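ARCHIVE CARD
Drawer: 12
Card no.: 0347
Subject: one protein chain, sequence and derived structure
Cross-reference: see card 0346
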Amino acid sequence: MKKQQTGQSMDRVDGRLKVTGGAKYFADYHVDELLYAALVCSPISHGTIKSINATKALRAPGVADVVSHLNAPRVAGYQSSKPGEKNGLQIFKDDRIYSNGQPVAIVVANTLERAVHAATLVEVEYNQETHYTDMNASIGKAFQNSRMKDYLRGEAGAWEKAAVTHSAEYTIPLEVHNPMELAGIIAHWTTPDTLTLYAKTQGVKSVQETIKDLFQIPEQNITVHSQFVGGGFGMALRIWPLEVATILAAKKIRKPVKLVITRDQMFTLVGYRPNATQKLSLGATAEGKLTGITHEAVAITSPYEDFTEGIVAMSKFMYACPNVNTKYQLVPLNMSTPVWMRGPGEATGAFALESGIDELAYKLKMDPLQLRILNHADTDPERNLPFSSKYLKEAYTLGAEKIGWSARNPVPRSTEENGMLVGYGMSSGTFGAYRGKATVSATLKADGSLILQSAASDIGPGTATAMVQIAADVTGITPEKIKFMLGESVYPFAPEQGGSSTVSTVGSAVSDACKELQQQLATIAISNIPAFKTATPETIVFEDGQLITANQETKISYETLLQQQHLPEVKVMTTSQGGAERKKYSMYSFSVHFAKVHVHPDTGVVRIQHIVSVADAGTIVNAKTARSQMIGGVVGGIGMALTEEAILDHRFGRFVNNNFADYHVAVNADTPPTDVYFINKKDPYINPMGSKGMGEIALIGFAAAVSNAVFNATGKRVRDLPITPDKVLNTAATV
């Protein structure tokens, strides 16, 4: 019997393509007669366009057109909007300016350089109006979105009556998606109602659906290619106005148009993690049992969309507490719409909750780890359901052992190494474990090879590799003979890659398709092979790419069966989705992060020395790529904790650090030795593999672990991220 593939550290099936330059990303494609685009963006943050003069630009060499609200083709989907309805920025529909950097025109030319130059020649006059980009100054405009109702379990504000209380505000700054691959698209109308797109997207089917609704053309007339994505992290979960502008330009000019935006435009055109302020209040008995949690959050959104995410979600169920109430409000500002960023709102909320738990532990004179264990929720207190699986206590124990938690001195500012203050911190993370609906086609060829197709995306975690491993385990076919094809809208349906659900969703469809394929082979064998005539599909054993009779006396390989029956291939199409199990169980992945830090006592510089992250994410399909996922989350978490902050000059509503020199993402020098461990115990209910999502929990909670470690090292509590030296030095000691 061959070695099980899931759980092994299998190399990426697309690894060679990526390292040799063979992988084609959207910008690598070339279409005949391709033209290049550059955007003209608004320098004001609120108002109207008074006039646009494109004369100079149109006279420039190589310029094909300048498209704006004055001459853009009609977008049929815009017309269905109701007055006052918030449904996104309808690009080039009218003269309104809602935010700084909003595209007001797109210039198309026969080279990129000519398009960029011509964009500087477009003359635009504006009627400027008062803008609002400061959340604190606009807090009076906060309102509650209907999707995020107040939550109450037990008594509201019960924390105030507790023997020991803690209440504080925590702030997350605006953070920007900055993958190496810039956003953009290639749009090509091959006929007036047939469109081909080469896109950077986390969901080719969702792009297809959005464009169908906007331009009201048949879905089958829209082809989307996106086999490789150079980092998404949430920014590619939707179609943005920049992409619609490119599609409009291509429609007007009747030639293919390519747009790749600039680095500074990444700050204004493709979403961001919204600035948020949270007030977290905790109450506990003198022994440390939580009696009340109140979590109130205020975050920003755009004037034309009410963006919400799960900022207060974790507080509702993470700990066993009888009284919990949450509130989540939005402040509309003259900015573009936020979007989910890795760890979505849960990463924002976890910073407040897990920092607050640490602060409460100090007031209780209790080990923060023991406080968490004491208040561990054995069942989901929000839904009053058992967890499908939860091994968080094991993760706590394992992580504490590996970081050397026993060496931690509970007295802040009490330990030094080589002239540096030493601190240990930890935190928990959690995110919903989902299984959506997906369809996979499976084709077994007469040579024994297996081809799987689904319109899934891969923004980096190694989707195709995991699917090959799952298929290999079900069929017994060696991974070298299995190919998983993805990223094309012509393939069967798969949802967007987001929310840590791809392996669970598409992997289940792969598993089910392979099982259905085996049933087809069983039927063929029973009908045509004498030794199998008395068998039933249920009694035939499938092992090592063979069909075996129950008595083990007769074996026949898949390829031999097809060749004997003169069948070039056997093909199935299988749709898979979860059932009633989600109504019976609460399904979550969990993580624990431990950090050891050094803090320079005179400069306030924080250096992370050692990280241990433990994931409770069910069965690990690929140990190698799973470890990479966890390390990737850690790197993002380091940026969140120590360096990342997009800064606005509120006089103009304009970003002042919109580049890689001034917006500091974590780099190799910031990343210390990182140990990753997996509980690796199957969830018995969520899907056939027993696997739960990992991409989000890799980051959720991490910033709090660093913040808690800094406090342990210095006795100073930084509640507004990022933790920069000036804050460490200026924050009053709170020991």
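Annotation on reverse: The mean pLDDT is 96. Residues 90 and 500 are 30 Å apart (CA to CA).
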